[in-house]
Amino acid sequence: MINRHTTIFMIRLSAFIFTLTFLASCTPPLVTNQLDTVKQRNTLIVGTLYSPASYFSDKKSSTGMDVELAKNFAKKLGVELQVVASSDLNNLFKQLDNNTIDILTTGLSVTEARLKRMRFGPPYYQVSQQLVYKQGQKRPRKIADLIGNLTVIAGSSHHETLLALKEQHPDLVWNTTSKQDPDQLLKLLIDGSIDYTVVDSTVLARNRRIYPDISLAMTLQKNSPIAWAMSNKTDDSLFSEVISFFGQHQVDGQLAQLEEKYFGHVQRFDYVDTRAFIKAIAKKLPKYQLLFEIYCGELSWQQLAAVSYQESHWNPKARSPTGVRGMMMLTLPTEKQVGVKSRLDPEQSIKGGAIYLTTILNRLPDSIPLQQRIWFALASYNVGYGHLMDARKLAVKMAKDPDSWTDIKHILPLLEKSKYYKRTRHGFARGREAVHYVASIRRYFETLMAMDLAPRLAPQPLEIAARIDSLVQHPIEIITLPAAQGSDVQRPSPTQPLE
Fold it and tell me: Hey, what domains does the chain have and what are their CATH numbers?
């Protein structure tokens, strides 16, 4: 993952790559002024692999870190974006060579072999290549232990790594495929169709939330730089724009924002917790999913369900040592504010928690970007609105962005240190806990999204249909919190035992 401490490294590596690609270009360019070509057709054509890091689809849109970057780049050029997605990496390489696509934005590792046939833009994050196997099978601890079906994607950097390893390990054998993307290879691993595969660390981290039995055997290569690739048969016009674009995104913090959005919450993995959550999805969630769908309001039902699981593990009678109760672990003052008569009633608790969380969302400053508002609201739900505002003020004093969750999640833990909280209005707060709280909910939420659970709103039992009719006639009302209410209330730790 990229961070401020690696900026110098990235700049030097970019210069090194630029020099190598310039020296390697020994033939006259076949395509001149690529930038003009892109602007004349009014379309930037990028190629990408289907993968969690680069490009994936949900019911509303197709996105991913790399394609989001591509959208920003196309906007900078003032042209439309056309994405050519494929599970065949070699096919994408051919299209790049033939100039039918302008850029490969699939998050390619920069390797010596690839530098001979293409050139790369500035690196924007790093990954490790990790050999994985299924939990319960014998773990291979060295290359000589790889006995079984090892399959990797043809033309991938993982394939190149295995070719290099074979020079020291002549008995090493593997299969290649052009039919599966990284996610599908991991599914084959879980199904027992293959014994091993190699994936990037980002892909492993995201998939373990769905398949916790994917286990890391060994890291084959660390800190591989990831960058966009372009043909070395073109001039420098578009290439220069790519370098400028990434430089600006690094300076203005947008790269850090995107990295946090897609990868900032997935690095921490708890096998036991993940297994427990998946089990709860199968056994507990069906009892309450409809209520989450009915009362989610401005949220998605998966977001509301993820908050509830973090609070109570979907236990209607949950109790913390500090006295908060129920599915959404409401305090007595909050219970009164949102009109809940019984915190132990699942429907009332879910509805009350949704009202309170939506109220916080609407209370947040308008300057916070839409996509990040939920993380700010969750931090407030955990640590208190006043403490969140204290963190934002500290961010301004420290020349950080108060509207960026990337910055605020590093500021909140400072509220545990006297040199910082003494300078705030509301004093000490367990800010580190709030950061972990938000990260956990994000992981639960993305697991629910990835599992693509079918909505339960139709058909409904008559009594549920009546509730829906009532909800339509009397929608959730947003309450107005008094200025001091809830601002300095410290919620219990989500790691405390529940009854």
Answer: 4-124+224-263 (3.40.190.10), 127-223 (3.40.190.10), 271-473 (1.10.530.10)
